[in-house]
Amino acid sequence: MDRKIFFIILIGTIFISSLIFAFSATSKEHQEKGAGSQVGNVYIDAISQNKQLSMPMVRFGHDMHTEVLEKQGKDCQTCHVQKEEGLVFFYERSGSIEDAAALKTIYHENCIGCHASMHEDGEASGPLDGECRSCHTGVSGDRSQPFVMEKALHYTHWASEDIAHKGAEKNCGACHHQYDSEREVLYWEKGSEQNCRYCHEDPQQDDIRSMRGAAHDQCVRCHAKKRDGAMSEAGPVHCEGCHSDSARQEIERSGRKLEEKMGEIPRLERGQPKAALMLPADGGQNKEATSPQGGVGPVPFDHRGHETSTDTCRVCHHKSLEACSECHTVAGSEKGGFVQLSQAMHETQSQRSCQGCHEQEKKAASCAGCHDFMPAPDQTGETEKCRACHLEGDQAPSVSEAAAMNATNRRETARLFIEARDTSQELYDREDIPQTVTIDVLANEYEAVEMPHRQIIQAMAEDIEGNGMAGYFHREKGTLCQGCHHNSPASKEPPTCRSCHGKPFNEKAPLKPGLQAAYHQQCMNCHEAMNVEEPANRDCTACHEKAEQR
Amino acid sequence: MHRRKFLGLMGAAGAGSVATSTAQAAGGKHFEGYPDSFAVLFDSTECIGCRKCEKACNEVQNLDDPEQPFDDLSVLETKRRTTSDAYTVVNKYDVPDQSEPVYRKIQCNHCMEPACASACFVGAFQKTELGAVTYDPTVCVGCRYCMIACPFHVPAYEYDKALEPRIMKCTMCYEIRLSKGELPGCVEACPTEALLLGKREQLLRVARRKLRAYPDRYEQHIYGETEMGGTNWLYISGTPFENLDMNTDIGDTPAPKFTSGALKLVPGVVALWPLLLGGIYAISRRKDKIAEQEREQSVEEAVAETKEQARKDLEEFKDKAERDKKKEIEKAVQKAKEEAEAERKDEQGGSDE
Amino acid sequence: MSDQETGKGGSRLSLFHIITGVILLIGVALTVYRFTQGLGPATNLNNEYPWGLWISFDLLCGVSLAAGGFVTTAVCYIFGLKKFHIAVRPAVLTAMLGYLLVVIALTYDVGRPWRLPYPFLVQSGTTSVLFEVALCVMIYLLTLIAEYSQVAFEWLRMSVARSLVMKSILFLTVLGVILSTMHQSSLGALYLIAPYKMHPLWYSSFIPVFFFVSSIVAGLSMVILEMSLARRFMRHKMDEAHEQGYEDVVLGFGKAAAFVLAGYVSLKVLGLAVENDWSYLLTGFGALFLVELLGFFALPAYVFAIGARERRVGLIKWTALWSVLGIVLNRFNVSLIAYNWNLKVGEHYFPGWMEFGITIFIVTLGVVLYRYCVTRMPVLHEHPDYTDTH
Question: How far apart, in whole angstroms, are the C-alpha atoms of residue C114 and residue C109?
Answer without folding.
Answer: 12
